[in-house]
Design goal:
This protein is of the alpha+beta class. The protein has one domain (about 50-235): Cyclophilin. The chain has helices spanning about 85-95, 120-130, 185-190, 205-220, and strands at about 65-70, 75-80, 105, 105-110, 115, 145-150, 160-165, 180, 225-235. A nine-stranded antiparallel sheet has the order 3-9-1-2-8-6-7-5-4. The longest helix has 15 residues, at about 205-220. The two termini are about 10 Å apart.
Amino acid sequence: MRLTSLFACSAAILFAASIPTFSQTPTTAPAKPKTSTTATHTTSPYDRALLKPSLLKETAPATYQVKFVTTRGDFTITVTRAWAPLGADRFYNLVKHHYFDGARVFRVVPGFVAQFGLSAYPPVTAAWSNAKIKDDPHSQSNKRGTITFATSGPNTRTTQLFINFKDNSNLDSQGFTPFGVVDGNGMNIVEMFYDQYGDSAGMDQEAIEKGGEKYVAGRWPKLDTITSATIVGGTSSTTAAPKPATAAKPAPAPATKQ
């Protein structure tokens, strides 16, 4: 199945604050107009750096941890850069600049995957829609608990991700390359994400991209929210990579629609 993948700016407004005054005597020069130094600032609800994806290319640590705080609870993902360097770097930069904060887990298919990665803010989603990265060489299987970028074909990864509920090794040959795994009992939280919409909300991605959180709240209000995703730890390359759990049963591939 092909699904769709992937802003306000603060401004200062200056006003003329005074009107020229003139003396009753012709020998007095008119006072000069004064410009107010007071500016009105609007606080952006998201990191404005997200509007320039081409500048967010920091190299991630060899391993690092990301804590997700959601409406179902908290869980942590450990990323191993060697598994998929380009994917790990992209995820690192997205998390570092709070791309996922406020985003919904818009596609939850029991026994298959939980998918997310459309920003709560339409301008941010739009900015990343064409910020594609190349595929990584495949080195890990899509086992239970692994996290992987969605794709609409070769070299089309942007911001959408999925967490495997089961062993989806049938995806391995289709370019889906895991770069991390949910730690400990975190899958207990992931598996609680609201799944009664099935693929219905997932099929509505174009409208979600354009309408953001305002649209989702009205059309798909029960979808769970990622309150925040933050980097909470990074270690050296000598740290052993966590092993994905094993499970079974394939299903249609998670993908992004162009």
